[in-house]
């Protein structure tokens, strides 16, 4: 039972490049989330998907897009990477409202 | 901005109970209190959550005051592996806002 799997684990991008961060869960969870964590700070919600077919903005959505491809997969896309997007990105899933999250191990992204 | 207040750091002796306080004075009636921890740079780990009543699971106990304005997470027998940042969060599972948390250091 893998839980929440994020790929890649590390990535270096040049300013202006695009990339997609992948996230998949095998727990049949309804809700999925993308967070970012900057050094020494707490996590901030970028986007979430309460259920398959729906997505909503979180606290810091600018510069990002998401796709809930199916119940298992929720991807995060950076169309034109900026140095301010250097961060650790965490994907999470939950059975739904009132349940705890299961987090992935993170993607460490550096934009130069 | 995070809506909870936690001490930035605490120490605890190995084998003793760790009691982590949290103030959430703006919590509304239908919002839960969630506790997570993050060990070094790993993904956060869910610990426990509650609405009104005290809760206990295999990891910890959660004590919520009657007015729901504060809570305490109790790790009954802290080990070195419990050294982590502990986050207390109020809200719905739809949007959890993580603050700075409490750095708990368990000392040998």
Overview features:
heterodimer; A: 112 residues; mainly beta; B: 108 residues; 4-stranded antiparallel β-sheet; 9 strands
Strand content of chain A: over 45%
Largest sheet of chain B: 5 strands, mixed
Helical proportion of chain B? under 10%
Mean pLDDT of chain B: 91
Instruction: Please tally the helical runs of chain A, counting DSSP H or I stretches of 4 or more residues.
Output: 0
The main β sheet of chain A shows up as: 7 strands, mixed
Structure summary:
The complex is a heterodimer of chains A (112) and B (108). Chain A has strands at residues 4-7, 10-13, 19-25, 31-37, 43-49, 56-57, 64-68, 74-78, 87-94, 102-103, 107-111.
How would you describe what is shown here?
The complex is a heterodimer of chains A (112) and B (108). By secondary structure, chain A is mainly beta. Chain A is 0% helix and 50% strand. Chain A has strands at 4-7, 10-13, 19-25, 31-37, 43-49, 56-57, 64-68, 74-78, 87-94, 102-103, 107-111. In chain A, strands 2, 4, 5, 6, 9, 10 and 11 form a seven-stranded mixed sheet that branches. A four-stranded antiparallel sheet of chain A has the order 1-3-8-7, with no helix packed on it. In chain A, a hairpin with a 5-residue loop joins β4 (31-37) and β5. With 108 residues, chain B is an all-beta fold. In chain B, a hairpin with a 6-residue loop joins β3 and β4 (45-50). Chain B has no helices and nine strands. In chain B, the strands form two sheets. In chain B, strands 1-9-8-3-4 form a five-stranded mixed sheet, with no helix packed on it. A four-stranded antiparallel sheet of chain B has the order 2-7-6-5, with no helix packed on it. In chain B, 35% of the residues are buried. The A-B interface holds A 4, 31, 35, 41-45, 48, 50, 58-59, 88, 90, 92, 94, 96-106 and B 2, 32, 34, 36, 41-49, 87, 92-101.
